[in-house]
Amino acid sequence: MALAVPCTWYSSAIDSISRRRSLSADYVTAPDRTLYTSPLADRYASRAMLMLWGPQLRYGLWRRLWLALAEAQQSLGIAIPDAALDDMRAHLDDIDFEAVAVYEKKFRHDVMAHVHAFGDVAPAARKFIHLGATSCFVTDNAELILMRRGLHLLRDKLIDSLEALGVFAREWKDEPALGYTHLQPAQLTTVGKRATLWMQDILLDLEDLEYRITQLPFRGVKGTTGTQASFLSLFEGDHAKVRELDRLVTTRMGFAASIPVSGQTYSRKVDAQVLGVVAGIAATASKFSGDIRMLQAFGEIEEPFEKNQIGSSAMAYKRNPMRSERIASLARFVLSLEPNANQTHAVQYFERTLDDSANRRLVIPESFLATDAILVLMQNVVRGLEVHPARIRRRVDDELPFMATEEIIVRFVRAGGDRQEAHELIRGHSIDAARAVKDGAPRNDMLERLAADPAFGVPLEDLLAVTQPTRFVGRSPEQVVEFLDEHVAPWLARERDGVDVEEVRV
């Protein structure tokens, strides 16, 4: 199924905001340093995601929803003059937030504050704004638009990381490296093959993302408790017109369908489904970052480190995996928010309760902002990974003689020896060699020990031939090529919005 077409209302809103705001490198304008501000805004999230969840776009969408409702009502016979619609169209983005604040202090109601502020600048439309609607007409529908667009932004960043990892995997597809099971050295893999494991997780996230984007419903025009009673009254009992009103507004706002039934709100199950996908992305990035942190501790692969970057305030020599650590830190935060959405859904009594509102104002935007920040970091890390082949090979050499023991036993038997005898000889020499390495020996000399043992009788050159690393990577190089060509390439060929690779701010 093709992805849903991005909402034209959203696009026009973004364009308008971009024209009204400076697109300088500054993310915020002269903040008041006496007040707390979210680190997600100050330090981590991208400009695009910050604009998405900012008040200008949110409330600009409210006005567009009111306009879409009025346009649809007029087309179905409600006597709304063209001048009223023109007045609304002329004032979609010139929101007087100070006036809104005054109204909200008076009414203690954010939606009605915006209704009155909109009516002040569009007086011809004043009496038609919000006609027949409930607050959730604008709050819920706008939230769904924002979430869908947020999923698009995350999707494009994920594909960008996928593309960069694909280049990395192909470049290093043949480089043997220790595999690890139980965090202990295991059969060899390759550097590129390990990268495909990270990429596989990304593909699974992308599949979930695409499904959620295509299936995300609009709330539509449902009325105060979801019965559409106010609109049935407005159209004097004409059920067909009420249904058409719902369809028209849904289509005008760029959605294929609205949710079939609702209470006052759309089911908060939808929020839980969306945040489940978002949390899945965070988990993928955290797993990737954990692998990088350990590989950097081993000295095999390191995240990028800028010329003037400081790793430690005390230990000047340190090169710490700070970006990967930050990914893990932010991911833990996102993962903690996912169950919150299910908990909110679980306590929505009957047609709605308001105990979801304040919670969702925090949980939904911050889930997206934090995950966006994670992907900004991930883009940066995957594009700057530094591989140290010499260290990788040394670690392989330290362990490879142990991994080749079965083939060494076969060579001994072919030379006329006894399998059980070979096993015992190898066991003894391997224990001694391992102890020597742990106690400071420069390298694993198990093969030399075996060759020097008269009871073994296999020349060193034969043993060395057995232990060439490329003999132990299986189909890793072939798997990399097959995976990239058959599974990754189709995703990279898809149309994208052209996401910039943003610089990590701190």
Q: How many helical stretches?
A: 20
CATH architecture of the domain at 139-171 and 189-215 and 265-308 and 317-347 and 360-385 and 485-492: Up-down Bundle
If you compute it from the alpha carbons, what radius of gyration comes out, rounded to the nearest whole angstrom? Answer: 30 Å
Multimeric organization: single chain
Structural class: mainly alpha
Structure description:
The chain is mainly alpha-helical. It has helices at 8-20, 39-44, 47-52, 55-75, 82-89, 97-107, 110-121, 135-171, 191-215, 229-234, 239-252, 269-298, 322-346, 357-383, 389-403, 405-414, 419-438, 446-452, 460-466, 476-492, and strands spanning 176-181, 184-190, 301-302, 386-387. The strands form two sheets. It has a two-stranded antiparallel ribbon with strand order 1-2. Strands 3-4 form a two-stranded antiparallel sheet. Mean pLDDT is 89; it is low at 1-7 and 22-28.
Could you write a compact summary of the structure shown?
The protein is mainly α. 63% of the residues lie in helices and 3% in strands. It is built from 20 helices and 4 strands.
List keywords for this structure.
single chain, 506 residues, mainly alpha, Fumarase C, Chain A, domain 2, Ribonucleotide Reductase Protein R1, domain 1, two-stranded antiparallel sheet, 4 strands, 63% helix, 3% strand, elongated, disordered N terminus
